[in-house]
Amino acid sequence: MTEATPLRLLIVDDEPLAVERLQLLLARCEGVTLAGTASDGEAALRIADAVGPDLLLLDIAMPGMDGMEVARELGRTGKRPLVVFVTAFDTFAVAAFDIEAVDYLMKPVTPDRLARALARARERLGAGAAAERRTEAPRFLDEFWVSEASGLVRLPARAVDRISAERDYMRLHSGKRSWLINHTISKLEEELDPELFVRIHRSAIVRRDFVSGLRRDPTGRWFARFPDGEEQKIGRLYLTNAKELAGR
Q1: Does the residue 2 lie in any domain?
Q2: How many domains does the chain have?
Q3: Residue 111 vs residues 4, 9, 117, 196: alpha-carbon distances, Å
Q4: Are residue 196 and residue 118 in the same domain, yes or no?
Q5: What are phi and psi of 98, to 5 degrees?
Q6: Does residue 160 share a domain with residue 67?
Q7: Please, which residues have CB within 8 angstroms of residue 218's CB and are 6 or more apart in sequence?
Q8: What's the confidence (pLDDT) of residue 79?
Q9: pLDDT of amino acid 78
Q10: Who's near 212: CB < 8 A, 6+ residues apart?
Q11: Cα separation, 241 vs 248, whole angstroms
Q12: Which one, 61, 68, 226, 238, has least CB within 10 Å?
């Protein structure tokens, strides 16, 4: 899709003022046309099936079928539109990008931020990317979207040194910084590339090349050493995983 080709959008939000704000912002954008609006998930699916939009500006927290369910249901169709989530909550970012959302906009949406999201949608639709996206989803999670004071930032999976569980959350460690995400360690273990990451404890996953050594204490317990001087106890159930790092 070229920039001259109109990008056909469907707005889905149960708040009339939010819909009106997006309509006003879109009126200032070139090369976009509004294919329709919907105030709930079921209506969004019906309208999307009827008008075939290129892109949904999709709220997440809605009564009945929420935005995540709408996106997943659209993903089961043969002709799947792109999705940009527009929400007041930052806790759904990881789940949003698990289902290949183009972008994740926080309310109130600014004109510049919306313009960047539309540009990303055009890039995704262009150069055959749409066909590739529809035929085969990425096998492993290759990025995270994490919360900062200024909003959300993209964190490549390869930049994560280790991951530790904290109650119902997971902490991503990268250098001297860390971020909490709402995810389970079992799900992360499934989604991360096993060639890059290995689970060594019921509450810890590490990037394989971040482990600088293995240590055994006098009681027989094993620990993984990291370049920053930190250590992580290796769980008995995961000792085989850890020893594979040393070719044992």
Answers
A1: no
A2: 2
A3: 20, 16, 10, 38
A4: no
A5: -65, -30
A6: no
A7: none
A8: 67
A9: 64
A10: 225, 226, 227
A11: 10
A12: 61
> Which of helix, strand or coil describes residue 91?
coil
Supply the range of the domain harboring residue 184: 145-244
List, for the chain, all residue ranges whose pLDDT scores fall below the cut of 70.
1-5, 78-79, 92-97, 127-138, 248
The percentage of the chain sitting over the pLDDT mark of 90, rounded to a whole number, equals: 67
For position 21, which CATH number holds? Answer: 3.40.50.2300
Residue 1 in any domain: the answer is no
Instruction: Give me the pLDDT at residue 176, please.
Output: 92
231-233 vs 222-225, strand pairing mode: antiparallel
Q: Which long-range contacts (CB under 8 A, 24 or more apart) does 230-233 make?
A: 232/162, 232/164, 232/200, 232/201, 232/204, 232/206, 233/201
CA dist 150 to 116, 146, 213, Å? 16, 11, 37
Residue 136 tokens, joined: 């085969």
pTM exceeding the 0.70 threshold for the entire prediction: no
130 and 149 in a single domain? The answer is no
